[in-house]
Write a structure and sequence with these properties.
transport; binds adenosine-5'-diphosphate; six-stranded mixed beta sheet; binds magnesium ion; 10 strands
Amino acid sequence: MSTPVLSLRGLRAGYGRRQILRDVTLDVHAGQIVALLGRNGAGKSTTLLAVAGFLPQVEGEILLDGQPLAGAPHTRARRGTGLVIKGRSLFASLTVAENMRLADLAPDALLDIFPELEARLHVRAGQLSGGEQQMVAVARALLRRPRVVLLDELTFGLSPAMARRLVDAVVERARQDGTAVLAVEQHIHIAERMATHAAIVAEGVVKLHLRRDELLARAEEIEGIYLGHAVDV
Ligand SMILES: Nc1ncnc2c1ncn2[C@@H]1O[C@H](COP(=O)(O)OP(=O)(O)O)[C@@H](O)[C@H]1O
Ligand SMILES: [Mg+2]
């Protein structure tokens, strides 16, 4: 098979002396959408932060197109990582159009993905609904044509209709551009809607790698063992 766009090998990382990731190993190939599933506190967001360069001490390997990915977050973003974290992506006091321009993007490009935002282009980002903000954040990341887009709970807190709209738009655009996607999810039904593959993480270790057909066949079992009740620790 071809070289993965993103390859994590035995990733270990934490906060200070507290180790969180113990063995995160997974690949994301071009055109794949890999759902990183696990319960609250499993280490999903920490994995994305490690890849994007926000954790000072990471052991193991992070490869982008087969080459080590290192350095500050902006260096990694230039290499082709696009991170979408809820609540941190947009400048609330700037308009949607200004937020697009800050990312070196033409405001209208947003409408290729989300035409329903046309009337919102000159509204401050802080005035948008949570779903609309997430649309702008994810479109901005995708339109910069990253090699891999890292999504942290894309649909958290959104209505089911808004969640479906976002997920379907991301799937379509990623497929069209061949963008690799690593999508952190706590809800298996979102993973079922979007993922080509899944990696199941528990206590900082990727325990299972599944193809889409395996995820669908084992969804109930996986939910019971690895997702179940969210325990925040
Ligand atoms: N900034 C931080 N400092 C210390 N511990 C943290 C920090 N962020 C997360 N943690 C801890 O790391 C563990 C994994 O967190 P996280 O990766 O956010 O889990 P998930 O995204 O899977 O819910 C949790 O126990 C959490 O409390
Ligand atoms: Mg998280």
